[in-house]
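Students often ask why we bother encoding 3D structure as a string. The short answer is that it lets us treat folding as translation between two languages. Here is a chain of 236 residues written in the first language.
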Amino acid sequence: MFMKRWIPILVIAALAVGGIAAFGTIEKVSAQTAADEAAALPAGGFERGGRGGMAYTDEELATALGISVDELTAARAEAKTAALAQAVKDGLITQAQADAITANGNAFPFGGRWDGWLAGQGLDFDTYLADALGISTDELAAARAEALDAHLAALVADGSITQDQADLMKARQALAASDTFKADLQSAYESALAKAVADGTITQAQADLLLAERADNAGFGLRGGFGGMGGGKRGR
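And here it is in the second language, the structure alphabet:
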């Protein structure tokens, strides 16, 4: 409750200097991307892959990689096993939690968001997936970009979305996947907090708590995480 009482004050102070407005952009990028997809994409399953979480089908990603969907699914399973084993080895999760995640995709206390939490602790699923595919992470990123382009081009072609909407989605995806962009927004957030402390809006101790809170929830800010881990032959 103490923290909740300070949040409106912090927001008002930060907006005055523009820092929080910039920092909030990254969450808006993710939220608006999800809204765009919900409005533009027909009903049915979509694989969310890569940092930023835009949707494309397994078939489109497999085509971009030059492999079959079955090979892609097998590589994901291999990567998931390796990532969970490393998480247990590093003491991030227990073997029981890893077993639960393997069995049903959920584990207390992470629920279905364990992948984002582990990503926030430094376990990048893309590294394991690229290893399983026998390619580099840069090649994996390029294949995902190609799959996304193909998916959006198909939606434009059948009239589901306009070219402007497709371009906007790709722009949001690029920002959500950019470490530089996120680092710049983090810097803006820290500057806004420092200004709020200097102005007497909050104390340094409170600013430190807010920074720690942000760091603790780093894995949940964007839908990056273990991109596209779910697998499955899902399409439009």
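Translate back mentally: The beta strands are 47-48, 55-56. Keep this in mind for the problem set.
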